[in-house]
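Issue: ligand-bound run for zinc ion - logging full I/O for the record.

Environment: standard queue, default settings, no custom constraints.

Inputs:
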Amino acid sequence: MRIVILMILYTFLSCSGQSSKNQDVGRQLLDSSNVAALVTESDSIDIPLFAQKIITSYPLFDIHYEDNKLVFADGTKIVYDDGRNKEFKQMLDESDIEDMSSMQYGVEDSIPRYLNDCGRSRNEELFKKMYGNSEAAVRKNLVTINWFGQKLLFSKVNNAAEQLEKVASELTSYKQYKKYLTNASSFYWRKVRGANRQSAHSYGIAIDINTSFSNYWLWSNPRSSETDKIKYENKIPIEIVRIFEKHGFIWGGRWYHYDTMHFEYRPELL
Ligand SMILES: [Zn+2]
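Outputs:
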């Protein structure tokens, strides 16, 4: 409630076309001890920004943050930050929720920066809680969508399937892109190639478009380790990528370890 009051106050003072003087007053109001008057006890103002992103991106679960944990409406608690310093590979293999925010999703970058793989870190507890903790559990949440004449299974949880349908409907008007989109695949309960962590395809929230026009870092660099320098390759038109991103999907072509056929429903990163 107090947060709501603060947000209304801030919106009123800073976004409603007031003079800069009034904006200064607004800032002073928020920066000074007046905040203490409005927020009298430790409150949701202490919630880390990325925890807030998770909460607002997945409203179905009515998640709140408490004592370094995300708490679901049914009482399930998942540790937010395990406090460990991790090397690159550990960020992928042993990701806590906070690690998922350790890289920036680079919508501005034409070529991904070295080791920027935003989205490849997934806290398995969180994804299994939301989408299902076994193949059978995930399957219960799958629905069939029409993808350019092909039937694809996708999770209805968090409206992921509905968002993918919006992508399909928007891409339909670009006839020249159809060849990139056909022969797609989606749900497959499996581990990431060469790793012991679950692939996003396991949860029914990822789609691979036509592999004939795709590049994957391990296809081009079969003997590379995760920290080797590799050369970027991509053939997927950026217009396709932007339409996916508009509807909550990240693109594997923005990863240093590129996977340009791969799109994944991750609204918390956009
Ligand atoms: Zn994929």
